[in-house]
Amino acid sequence: MGKKRNKRPSDQYRLPPKVVAAQRSAARVAAFRPRPVVPQRRVVLALAGLFLVCAGLTSVLWFPAHSLRDDLRSGGTTVAARVVGVDDKPKFVEVRLVQGPDEGTRVRLSEYAGMLPDVRTGDSLLVTYDPEEPSRVLPRGWVTDPPANLPAYGTAAIALLCLALATAVALRRRWILRTWPSEPAAAADAVSPEQPRTKGKGLSKS
What we know:
Blueprint: H1 17-31, H2 41-75, E1 77-86, E2 93-97, E3 106-108, E4 124-130, E5 133-139, H3 140-144, H4 150-179, H5 184-190
Helix pairs in contact: 2-4
């Protein structure tokens, strides 16, 4: 009689060695993904710190200048003045009031967000000052129509840029840590095909 093949149980089926090797090789290739460089935590903290510093500078440049302008608009006295002193920077502009109850008083113009008007000694201009504190004084034109607060705008833009970068770096760091395991070798072994539970039996002869 001819040879008869016994039916092998499905749970004892074993793939040929070449197929198993190919599957393992494909699994290793699929699992091997170069892990990007994880942004360090100190980079995120540094960017957040720069944001806070720039935000603080923006506040210093914005709120005192606008508070002074609003106070002089509501309760200031406008008089004529003559410039009697200007340094080369300029770090200060000194004027002498030539009108009003404080005539003859010499005061230095207040800075508006770190800025001073471009004037020369001997120039005449209208100024608005606080009668109770004459040292709080601005050119009349800066009270009615203040110049663009460029320093505050610049620091605000830098602050927003630092905030955006800090957020982007933090999100990228979180995504990398979630996507790539800390031990790539362990991940490669985890995705390898499972070994068969039992060895298959050879063909039996009848």
